[in-house]
Structure formats: structure tokens, C-alpha cells
Fold this sequence. Notes:
By secondary structure, the protein is α/β, with parallel strands linked by helices. It has helices at 21-32, 61-72, 89-99, 125-137, 166-186; strands spanning 7-13, 37-41, 75-80, 111-117, 141-142, 148-150. The protein is globular, with a radius of gyration of 16 Å.
Amino acid sequence: MTDTATKNIAVLVGSLRKESFSRKVALALQELSPPSLALDIVEIGELPFYNQDLEVEPPPAPWAKFRDRVRAASGVLFVTPEYNRSVPAVLKNALDVGSRPYGKSVWSGKPGAVVSVSPGAIGGFGANHHLRQSLVFLDVLTLQQPEVYLGGADKLFDAAGKLSNDAARKLLTSLLERYAELVARNARS
């Protein structure tokens, strides 16, 4: 029997800039999302850098809030720019915060998907694959196809910041359809 209840999906945006292309893509994903998924952007900009010395009871409040939100989600969707052929430090820090304390990772077993976004031609390919490498270790069941590298991001949105490119919309819709299937098969909550 398939669970038809709407699944809450934590969306992590790897850019802190208010008008970032990654944030605009995350908002477009929310609008395009099928009824079976409720995409919720979980802010990561206020997380203190991971430092094991701070891993005490209670841990820093932003860490605890972040961990609780991701732990409660049925899956996680990452939307990231590329910085120096990798993911931004703020996103790597979120991965680290969520993976600790040892044995209590919020990532383990969650269905995940990755979208990389860049004004450049290769659409953040390096960041996408670098992030996937970390997700393998973190035991995130990452959607393999379709791979989404959104290049030319500066040309995908209208003046109001809404996705206006039909090919990008089609690709993101395809991603969400496949991701919804992955979540339906694998979500634990």
C-alpha cells in the first residue's frame, strides 16, 4: 500500500544572498511541486560553524532547531550555487551540523535530490558532484536522474524573479516527479 499523505521536504539553499539564483530556483521548485510534496526552505545562514567543543547539552539553539527541522522532514532537497568548483561553506557547515553528534545524523536514510545553479555554462557541475560525494557518506538516498545543472541562471527569470524559461521549468518538473517517486518509496516519516 502506498502512503498518499503529503511529505514534508526540507529545502536547503546554498546561497545566502537575498536575490540569489539558487533561492529563486528553490522558490520555483515550491511552486512546481506536486501535491505529494510540501517543500519548506530551512534557513542555514545563522548556524554557528561546527565546532565539536560546542557539542554539549544543550547544543547551540540554532543547531538544535536545524537538526529538529531536518530530522522531522521526509526528505531533503539541496539547491546550490558553485563556489570554486565546490559547495559554499554555509552549505558544507549545514551538512556537518546535521551529521553530529556521531551516531545521530539527521541525514541518514533520507531521500535527497540536488540542483546546482550558475550563470555559467556548466550550471554548477562541480558543486553538484562535490555535494553528491558528501551525500554518499551521509547515507542520503540521492536521486540519480535527472541530473540538474541549471546554467545561464541570469537568463532564467523575469523581472519579478519568477522562472520564465520553459526548458528549465520542464527539467525541474521532471526532477520533482522523479523525486516524489523516490520519497514515496523511501521516506521513513
